[in-house]
Write a structure and sequence with these properties.
467 residues, alpha+beta, Aminopeptidase, Alpha-Beta Plaits, 2 domains, five-stranded antiparallel β-sheet, 12 helices
Length: 467
């Protein structure tokens, strides 16, 4: 069963860029079952399983998922993502991991594929199973995979976290790197040094959860710094926050230098932000503590940094007027780091078309030019255009009600999927995406519904038999 395979691969560290071990594990699993396997130099896998009896003349079907996961953990959790297995446990219907991300995104899809490989009683066309690497860090695996090795013109992507829907389109994504040169100077005698920390936020997936308007720790920290700076000029010593560009940051910290009392304005900020985010982030905490430092950013650099933190685009930027509840454009202020000679801010613009991403990139580039920073854009992934006339979709829609007792919703999502890259590589490729229910992806609160997983497994089997 898929859940058994998921528990096994959860013992193998598989954060983005660290997929060698899990790729080898799945490759060996498939080879031992007699399947042909191609493993490329990036550790992408293509696994071929012949058709079942009576399906030999059917055209092949591609099943696609990614091997990697987002590595996030709660503050205080002792876990080495390079060596330690995930600590799984069940809580009612939910499968969870203690203090870390669960990796059901997209490990449960890998488990589905492994279960398909080992079950010779299933009815299905020839299967071409594609398992990619580094999806969560820029989709390098899908970008570089050799699609000429695939014959299928129909693809089931299993990277979907809501079991009530079939996805038929997704957003384009870009990673933006904003570098602000850091000029430093000695801290004047008599100045006070403080550490301001924002934590306790819900966080989430920068595509799936962006419309929920949860607090972004880096943006909130920037706004707190801006409010204090209005009352009395401050200088920044260092700043850090966020772990992954595609995860809404839950924690951020800045060390600052103040030349007058800031406690009153700080307390007002703390009260105001607790009120603003009471519905989405009840655990929000903003703390102020005394600190020490010898050097800080020069006044001009500090002012530019504060301006950047509050003016870089963040959150929902545009919504669809054609598809209910669909975000057309967004940007996630994902990571901020203090380096030796610069402050680095990493962002992820998303858009349902190339137009939206280009517009957001222009905003970032223009602000960088005004501020004196440098903006570069890397890791672009294309949108997957919505196709309501898909023949694959028609078959899937027919298979859904007998298992779930209701009709499925057909929609597009604002998250990025690898489907756009495969659609560019394979002309005329018919794609759908579905998967079991997973909540709070990219956070330590990530959890997988066991009942949903079981139903989705039945749907996958039923769909393959109908193709």
């Amino acid at each position: 069963m898929p859940l058994n395979h998921f528990k096994e691969i959860s013992k193998i560290p598989r954060g983005s860029g660290n997929e060698q071990a899990v790729s080898d594990y799945v490759k060996d699993f498939a080879v031992n079952l007699g399947c042909k396997v191609i493993q490329d130099k990036l550790n992408n896998l293509i696994i071929y399983k012949p058709a079942s009896l009576g399906y030999e003349d059917k055209p092949p079907i591609i099943l696609q998922a990614h091997l990697d996961m987002v590595n996030e953990k709660n503050a205080g959790t002792k876990h080495d993502f390079l060596t330690d297995p995930l600590k799984l446990y069940t809580d009612g219907d939910w499968l969870k991991a203690r203090g870390t991300t669960l990796g059901a995104d997209n490990g449960i899809a890998v488990a589905f594929c492994m279960a398909l490989l080992e079950d010779n009683a299933l009815q299905h066309p020839p299967l071409e199973i594609v398992l990619t690497v580094e999806e969560e860090s820029g989709m390098a695996g899908a970008q570089n995979i050799d699609a000429t090795l695939l014959k299928g013109k129909r693809m089931i992507n299993l990277d979907n976290s809501k079991d009530y829907q079939f996805i038929m389109g997704c957003a384009a994504g870009t990673t933006a790197e904003y570098m602000l040169p850091a000029l430093r100077e000695e801290i004047l005698a008599g100045a006070d040094v403080f550490s301001i920390t924002v934590n306790g936020l819900t966080g989430g997936h920068s595509g799936d959860d962006i419309e929920k308007e949860r607090g972004n720790a880096i943006r909130i920290l920037g706004q707190v710094l801006a409010e204090i700076n209005r009352a009395t000029d401050i200088q920044i010593v260092a700043i850090s926050g966020g772990m992954k560009v595609n995860a809404i940051p839950r924690e951020a910290t800045a060390t600052i230098v103040a030349h007058s009392d800031i406690k009153q304005i700080f307390e007002k900020c703390k009260t105001d932000f607790a009120e603003k985010y009471r519905a989405t982030d009840a655990g929000l905490n903003i703390s102020l503590e005394k600190a020490t430092a010898e050097k800080c950013l020069a006044p001009e650099t500090s002012q530019k940094l504060i301006a950047s933190l509050i003016h870089l685009p963040n959150g929902v930027l545009a919504v669809s007027r054609e598809i209910d509840d669909l975000v057309n454009a967004s940007c996630n202020l994902g990571v901020v780091e203090t380096l030796d000679y610069s402050i680095k801010i990493s962002l992820m613009p998303r858009g349902m078309s190339k137009f939206y991403n280009e517009h957001t990139e222009t905003q970032i580039a223009n602000l960088a030019k005004l501020i004196g920073a440098n903006a570069t854009f890397v890791g672009r992934s294309p949108a997957w255009p919505y196709n309501p006339n898909s023949e694959l979709l028609k078959t899937a829609v027919a298979c859904y009600p007998p298992i779930f007792g209701q009709a499925a919703k057909v929609t597009a999502i604002h998250a990025g999927l690898e489907c756009g890259l495969f659609a560019e590589k394979i002309s005329g490729l018919d794609i759908i995406s579905f998967g079991p229910t997973i909540h709070d992806l990219h956070t330590p609160d990530e959890r997988l519904s066991i009942a949903s997983t079981e139903k989705m497994w039945e749907l996958l089997k039923s769909l393959l038999a109908a193709l």
